[in-house]
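Archive maintenance. Older records in this collection stored only the sequence; we are now back-filling the structure field for every entry so that each record is complete. The fields below show one back-filled record exactly as it appears after the update. Entries are processed alphabetically, and NmrA family transcriptional regulator is next in the queue.

ARCHIVE ENTRY
Title: NmrA family transcriptional regulator
Organism field: Streptomyces scopuliridis RB72
Length field: 47
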Amino acid sequence: MLNMLYGRIAESRFAQLADGVQRVLGREPRDFADYVRTTAATGVWHS
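Back-filled structure field:
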């Protein structure tokens, strides 16, 4: 079952864009790499 699911993901069968983030947050979604850079710069992840 997992192999089938991963195969479909790899084939981009579930690659449908939606506007859920924008509707819920009221802003455009941002790239995860941008989030990581911005958050890391705050020092919140440093012990």
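Update note: The helical segments are 2-10, 20-25, 32-42. The mean pLDDT is 89.
Entry marked complete.
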